[in-house]
Amino acid sequence: MSTLTYKHKKTFKLESGKRIKALEIAYETYGTLNAEQNNVIWVCHALTANSTVLDWWKGLFGENDLFNPKDHFIVCANILGSCYGTTGPLSTHTITNNPYYLSFPTITIRDMVEAHKILADHLGVKNIKVLIGGSLGGQQALEWSIMSPNKIENLVLIATNAFHSPWGIAFNESQRLAISTDRTFYANTQTGGLKGLKTARSIALLSYRTYEAYALTQLESDHLKTENFRAASYQNYQGEKLCKRFNAYSYWYLTKAMDSHNVARDRKSLKNALQQVKANTLTIGIENDVLFPIEEQKLIAENIPGANFKTLKSDYGHDGFLIETDQLTQIIGNFLKDSINKKIIPLIKTA
């Protein structure tokens, strides 16, 4: 399936009040929307992912997996501010005819969701059978379920939170500090800030993985070695790998958007915000997640009426939501079966 692009004809207003003209949204769909329009699976992707969900979430999405295009209409849209087709810092400004770079407006998770809503209208999606996302994707899914409570039937949130923690913000700021030390970041070029981005990725990996994960994959067998360690090579490799497919400007803006995440903003309180969710909800926490501790998913489940909470075990910490697809298949599959059998929440038409 090739990536499609929706070109929005109206001016797109951001939460900040600023506007983007000629908004473009890159997306992919798999399968066919049925006559009843009750087979939509919408995926919200994480920080540096893209709309090709069948590539990066294999084992959960695919012809032999839980979410099968033969049975479902699967949609995944590239998020606002990214660099995989949706309008972002490297997109051309309609007035200057040059890329935005650091003149790109500040965006929030809610802005990303508003773009999703526009695409949903374009695709004729009136109701979503399952809205699912992990990490930054989970932040989007949770916001959407609050902003459009009558549109979502089942909500699956993995390794995410109701507001980004001081710990998470500190990790993001450390990465942005690394990017800002690269003078080329302020040169406003396509490759600006890549050395800083490499370092930022190295920092991020320490929050995505665990002590156990590095011990499993990077432990040395040569006890005489004093340099050129596997773990050091791994950090360099992962940093260079990201630089080949991403850019420092999108990374900068997306981490700031993640920091902005707080469902309580303009909604009186966190409890009041979460109680607006009407979807049949499952939250999944990873036991040893350093970046999004399991308490954050429990907090969501405790405040959404009737929500379910499950634990996922992984040596890989936060990245387990992309790796442990067998466990996710069992947990989510059972959740959806129970939803059907108990008829907890019928499909609700958009108000």
TrEMBL record:
UniProt-listed InterPro entries: AB_hydrolase_1, AB_hydrolase_fold, HAT_MetX-like
Keywords, alphabetical: Acyltransferase, Amino-acid biosynthesis, Cytoplasm, Methionine biosynthesis, Transferase
Molecular-function GO term, any one: homoserine O-acetyltransferase activity
Catalysed reaction equations from the record: L-homoserine + acetyl-CoA = O-acetyl-L-homoserine + CoA
Active site residues per record: S135, D289, H318
Subcellular location: Cytoplasm
Positions annotated to bind substrate: R201, D319
Chief place of localization: cytoplasm
Pathway assigned to this chain's UniProt record: Amino-acid biosynthesis; L-methionine biosynthesis via de novo pathway; O-acetyl-L-homoserine from L-homoserine: step 1/1
EC number: 2.3.1.31
Domain AB hydrolase-1: residue ranges: 40-323
NCBIfam families: homoserO_Ac_trn, PRK00175.1
Family label: Belongs to the AB hydrolase superfamily. MetX family.
Function noted in UniProt: Transfers an acetyl group from acetyl-CoA to L-homoserine, forming acetyl-L-homoserine.
Subunit structure, as described in the record: Homodimer.
Name recorded for this polypeptide: Homoserine O-acetyltransferase
Origin species: Pedobacter flavus
